[in-house]
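C-alpha cells as discussed.
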C-alpha cells in the first residue's frame, strides 16, 4: 500500500471506467469495480467517471451519459458523472446538456483531439455557455501536439465566457510552461481566474525527472488553488499517480488542496 505524508482524503478527478465494451481506451477490460479494487483501503473517497461523445450518434451519446448517471447512483456517489456532448451536434448537443444537468451531471467533458474540433470554433463558446448556465464546469483535454496555439485559445475561451469554470486536463503535457500565461493574465482586473489545471498524466510524466522542480514551480505560479489531481485510469494506476504527485515536492497543505479541496469546490456538493 502506498504511504503518504498527506493524510487527508483524495478525489481522483480524471478516470475512464469502462461502461461499454466499445468505449475501452485500452485493450484490457477496466470496469468501475476494477478501479474500486485498486483504491480499496486507500484515501481515495471519490472519482470522476468520464465519457466522450461521438458526432451524429445522439442515441449513443444519451446512452453513455445515462450509464454514468446510473453509475453515480449505484456507487452511492463514489463516482461522479462527467457527461459529454459533441459540439458538432449543434442544438441537440445543447439540449443534451440541459437534460444531463437536470439529471445530476457534475461536470461536462470535451476532447478536442478525440472529438476533432478546434477550441477556437465559435460553437465551443455556445457549448461552454450552456454548461455554465447550468453551473457545470467543463473539463477539456488540453494537450494537443497538433495545435501549438491551443493554450492561447483556452485563454480566449475563458475570457469569452468569464463565468465558466474550465478545467484543463493534462496541464498542456510537455508544454506545461505555457501555463505561465495564467500568472500573467491574473495581473489584470478583468481576469476572473476561471481556469483550473488537472495534472493527470503530466504529473506522473515529470515526477522523478529533471522537469519535476520546474513543473511544481509553474503550478505554484498558476496558483495551487487552481490545481487538481487526476489519474487518467486505466492509463495510469491511481495510487501510482497519487504517489508521483506527492513526490513532486508540494507541501502537505498544497497536497490537501490538489488532492481534495480544489476538486471538492468544483463539485459543490454534487
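Sequence:
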Amino acid at each position: 500500500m502506498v504511504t503518504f505524508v498527506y493524510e487527508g482524503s483524495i478525489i481522483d478527478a480524471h478516470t475512464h471506467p469502462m461502461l461499454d465494451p466499445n468505449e475501452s481506451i485500452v485493450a484490457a477490460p477496466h470496469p468501475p469495480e476494477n478501479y474500486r479494487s485498486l483504491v480499496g483501503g486507500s484515501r481515495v473517497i471519490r472519482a470522476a467517471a468520464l465519457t466522450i461523445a461521438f458526432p451524429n450518434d445522439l442515441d449513443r451519446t444519451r446512452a453513455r451519459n445515462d450509464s454514468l448517471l446510473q453509475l453515480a447512483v449505484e456507487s452511492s456517489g463514489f463516482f461522479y458523472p462527467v457527461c459529454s456532448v459533441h459540439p458538432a451536434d449543434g442544438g441537440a448537443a445543447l439540449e443534451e446538456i440541459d437534460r444531463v444537468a437536470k439529471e445530476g451531471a457534475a461536470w461536462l467533458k470535451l476532447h478536442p483531439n478525440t472529438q476533432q474540433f478546434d477550441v477556437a470554433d465559435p460553437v465551443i463558446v455556445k457549448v461552454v455557455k450552456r454548461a455554465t448556465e447550468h453551473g457545470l464546469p467543463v473539463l477539456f483535454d488540453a494537450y494537443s501536439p497538433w495545435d501549438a496555439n491551443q493554450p492561447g485559445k483556452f485563454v480566449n475561451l475563458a475570457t469569452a465566457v468569464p463565468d465558466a469554470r474550465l478545467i484543463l486536463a493534462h496541464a498542456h503535457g510537455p508544454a506545461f510552461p505555457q501555463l505561465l500565461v495564467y500568472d500573467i493574465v491574473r495581473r489584470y482586473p478583468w481576469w476572473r481566474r476561471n481556469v483550473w489545471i488537472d495534472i493527470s498524466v503530466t504529473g506522473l510524466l515529470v515526477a522523478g525527472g529533471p522537469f519535476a522542480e520546474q513543473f511544481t514551480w509553474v503550478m505554484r505560479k498558476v496558483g495551487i488553488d487552481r490545481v487538481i489531481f487526476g489519474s487518467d485510469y486505466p492509463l495510469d494506476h491511481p495510487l501510482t499517480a497519487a504517489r508521483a504527485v506527492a513526490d513532486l515536492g508540494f507541501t502537505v497543505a498544497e497536497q490537501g488542496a490538489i488532492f481534495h479541496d480544489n476538486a471538492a469546490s468544483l463539485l459543490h456538493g454534487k
